[in-house]
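[Backbone geometry]
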Amino acid sequence: MSRIQSTFQKLKSPGPGGRKAALIPFITAGDPEPGATVPLMHALVAGGADIIELGVPFSDPMADGPTIQRASERALAYGMSLRTVLALVGEFRTQDAATPVVLMGYANPIEAYGAAAFAVDAATAGVDGVLVVDYPPEECVEFAKTLKRHGLDPIFLLAPTSTDSRFAEVAQAGSGYIYYVSLKGVTGSGNLDLDEVARRIPAIRDKVGMPVGVGFGIRDGASAARIAAVADAVVIGSRIIEEIEQSLPGEAPQRVSALLAGIRRAMDEGVKQ
């Protein structure tokens, strides 16, 4: 059982320690500068993160809104690459062997690295899952198998427009959890229809047979709590990046941890009601 699968199993366990939904924050590796990444990852855990999504900076993103695009630009200006991202995960692992880390990014850096070599090096560094935005399941069957051979969970996106055939493909190729894009648009978009998300999640979970995390458009404790009541995980990214942008040098870990702790409390209190 992977660290991701174990985390969801523990969160579903009965008793005081059991929670309905995982909290999955996203940050971009190397933003605001490479030395800040590992302290930020530890701050996310201190604030209540159950799983960390670590963005791999890329120059031509297709799913990221302006906020995360700016984060990638700042990181790339420092020369961040997929290899340096893996080094940061390895550094994080020297102090945290428990919190799952999912790399989220695009196909180009992996293709340049070499898919087989990437799987080996990612597993060695301590990565637990990989979400490649522009790798649809029908085009990366072998890549998904390679990840699984090395103990990594291939994680896929589903959207409001996904078809039944896409659900079946994702159920076959994926593992760990599904990332459900809760609205049509890019990260950080508004107009999140919480009622529509709540209506769709049970059917998605039944079709894919694994936990469903919901992201895009979640910006505060209230919306996170609403999602947590129906989903297996809440993913929040752009709001955290904004907090980093607004922080003075050295302030970001404390501010991010406090922000996440408030969201964690709202989620837990909402589940108890």
